[in-house]
Amino acid sequence: MANTKDQIPTILIADDIEANRELLTEILSADRYRIVQAEDGEQAMQLLEEGEVDLALLDVMMPGRSGFAVCRALKSNPDTRLIPVVMVTSLSASEDRVQGIESGADDFLNKPVNKEELLARVRSLLKLKQFTDELEHAETVLFALALSIEAKDPYTDGHCDRLSESSEGLAKRLSLSEEELIALRRGGIIHDIGKVAVPDQILLKPGPLTPEERKVMQQHTIVGAGICSPLKSFRSVVPIIRHHHEKIDGSGYPDGLKGDAVPLTARILQTVDIYDALTTDRPYRKAMAPDRAFGLMREEVKRGWWDGALVDELEAMVQAPVVRS
Predict the structure, then answer these.
(1) To which CATH superfamily is domain 154-319 assigned?
(2) Three-state DSSP class for 107?
(3) Contacts of the segment 37-45: beta carbons below 8 A, 24+ positions apart
(4) With contact defined as beta carbons under 8 Å apart, do 146 and 189 qualify?
(5) What are the contacts of 113-117 at 24+ separation with CB within 8 A?
(6) How far is residue 141's CA from residue 231's CA, in Å, rounded to a whole number?
(7) pTM to 2 decimal places
(8) Which CATH fold topology does 10-133 show?
(9) Helix (H, G, I), strand (E, B) or coil at 243
């Protein structure tokens, strides 16, 4: 979140006409906002990329980059896409509104600007931005916690990042929805977050677990789902966390789900997880070659454990030639 020291929101006013900038500055400064000004689209982009802006008021018709162009660039950048944008325009044609919506604008104001309308819309969008920032912070904490768990074991270094990337890649091959892609990207990082509740002497034990220790370890899927369930933005991730240790024949945990009752996203991450574990070094064995790993996975498919179609797709993805740009 910008300006965390004093929590005074910063608003960018971008307009090539100085009188317009000064008018908006006067109105908003009286409401105790910090104001930065830009006289064209290029200067606006520079200020936005510096990361100190909480909301942008963009004039549509500016020299160089138009307000539409600035908005498109802003919304296509992961670092700035959550900054609310209000297009300030004297244009009234519906096609101009459509262009603004397609550019990613969050709201519109017509010139001449009405003071009360301006303040109401700014307050509303800044409140929404605050909620978004808080949510983003909560997600960042979860990711940091998950990676700190991974860091305890040198043999799992990079495991979460590989699962995140490969699970998303496999999902793309299957033409899953954008929501499912995002869930798998996040799930790859935090699928084992529940291991925060597993004692280190069990988590890092080099040999086989006792039945009692195994019961403690198996609780991590339930604990992880419980940690993430309060976040509505993680509603599609929770089933991945809870069910990525289920088996097709119902012998997995924690719920003994069978067949298609195991969510597809959980099966995707599970398939990638098994392959990554087999093809990386462990305290008790060296990494397997890909062919041998897939051979073992297919033996387990015959036992009724894994989704054979997903194993086939993963092997095809692994063997696909890398296209370099």
Answers:
(1) Hypothetical protein af1432 (1.10.3210.10)
(2) strand
(3) 37/12, 37/13, 38/12, 38/13, 38/14, 39/14, 39/15, 40/14, 40/16, 40/64, 40/65, 41/14, 41/65, 41/66, 41/67, 41/69, 41/70, 43/14, 44/12, 44/14, 44/70, 45/70, 45/73, 45/74
(4) yes
(5) 113/23, 113/24, 113/27, 113/88, 115/27
(6) 12
(7) 0.62
(8) Rossmann fold (3.40.50)
(9) helix
Q: Judge if the upstream peptide bond of residue 254 is cis by omega within 30 degrees of 0.
A: yes
Give residue for tokens 């597809």: 264
Structure tokens at 183: 């869930």
Q: How far apart are CA 129 and CA 303, in angstroms?
A: 50
pLDDT confidence of residue 1:
41
Q: Is the pLDDT of residue 196 over 70?
A: yes
pLDDT bracket for residue 244 (50, 70, 90): very high
User: Strands 10-14 and 34-38: what pairing?
Assistant: parallel
Where are the domains positioned within the chain? 10-133, 154-319
Q: Which two tokens stand for residue 70?
A: 């600035």
